[in-house]
Amino acid sequence: MAKQYDVLIVGGGVIGCSILYQLSKRGKKVLLIEKNQLASRASGAAAGMLGVQTELKGGSPLYRLAQKSRNMYPVLAQELKEVTGMDIEYVENGMIKMAWTEEEAQSFVSVASQTDEGEGVEWLSPLKLSAFEPYLSKQATGGLFIPRDGNVSAPKLTEALGLASVRLGADVKEYTDVYDFIVEGSRISGVQTSVGPLYASEIIVAGGAWSQSLLERIGVTIHSHPVKGECFSVKYSRKLVERTIFTEGCYIVPKVGGRFLIGATEHAHTFDETISVSGMMNLMKKATDILPNLIDADWEKAWSGIRPQTEGGLPIIGRSERWEGLSIATGHYRNGILLAPVTGIMMADLMEGKENPLLHSYRGSFRKWN
Ligand code: FAD
Ligand code: GLY
């Protein structure tokens, strides 16, 4: 007799693993199925920035979710350390959004004045910017200092969420492909996999950029597309910057162990993870314009990942209107690491039939899917 689970999650990226963790904490019998290894796709490629103020605008439907999610990190990091012994390298090191023109400077000054007081966002004149980060290019017209937007190791976070869940009783099957659904009338009761059929009361598709092709098996369209991003990392003997530096088309994230992670390109509509010379050259030019000393750094490695983007630009988080027992959590595009904790909570509440006010107010914002 096949083992019956409360919830079966397809996809072992940060979104699937965060949902797995929250459900495991609540004592649910949960199974996660991953085609490759945990964190092997976008979640293993991400820079790990928790950029509420750098990537999202104040009025965006995602802003409050992102703020709540980022604020969960100190406790989450501690919990994961206690359960797994793993350090997800969470730091609240802050970010600086650099301005290159007078117009950009003016717009940042007004952002600083409009941002919530608790965020502590501050405009830095060129002089003050130099005092904060002395190695930055002197061509900058100033910067927006965002103290609360920190960063984590995205692969370690994803792995720790998976491991913590297993320690709490969850099952995880890696190297297992879900290729279809098991339909009983209007209900999805399980999935067909490379190791045979598996059943659960609730199925959640969290397959990142690959969710769309799986959901097409049962006629569900979520209007999503892949967006490739390439990154590289270097090592330097000195800490060239304390905070993450963010500009249009390039960011530099200081990581533990003298590493600097530099990202990221954007190529839409491709699942090809090949790293291009043009992408690397473009990033290197931008990064050395921002931080000239990087030219003397030691090369570490380059990689890429496929971001899941939706037509409306917002993640899809909720139940299918057409199929009972089917839910979906994908389309987190550039902010899946930032949004993973809150997505885990909202989906766990949904599975328990609890009304979550954040999810309730967010649900209206994305385009209907079936
Ligand atoms: P994924 O991590 O892609 O996971 C989906 C998983 O599902 C995959 O492992 C896949 O193998 C599995 N899967 C799919 N279909 C099936 C199937 N049929 N059967 C079994 N398994 C299946 N976000 C931030 O918040 N901060 C950042 O700094 C940041 N930087 C980024 C930098 C880059 C270069 C990239 C590419 C992304 C970045 N992101 C960042 C975005 C973030 O990585 C994504 O939003 C997030 O990882 C998406 O998580 P996911 O779990 O939905 O997808
Ligand atoms: N959020 C950074 C990226 O997606 O590249």
TrEMBL record:
Signal peptide: none annotated. Its EC number is 1.4.3.19. GO terms for biological process: thiamine biosynthetic process; thiamine diphosphate biosynthetic process. One of its GO terms (molecular function) is glycine oxidase activity. Keywords: Oxidoreductase, Thiamine biosynthesis. One of its GO terms (cellular component) is cytoplasm. PROSITE patterns: PROKAR_LIPOPROTEIN (PS51257). Pathway: Cofactor biosynthesis; thiamine diphosphate biosynthesis. Residues 6-350 form the FAD dependent oxidoreductase domain. It catalyses: glycine + O2 + H2O = glyoxylate + H2O2 + NH4(+). PANTHER family: GLYCINE OXIDASE, SARCOSINE DEHYDROGENASE-RELATED. This is glycine oxidase. It comes from Rossellomorea vietnamensis.
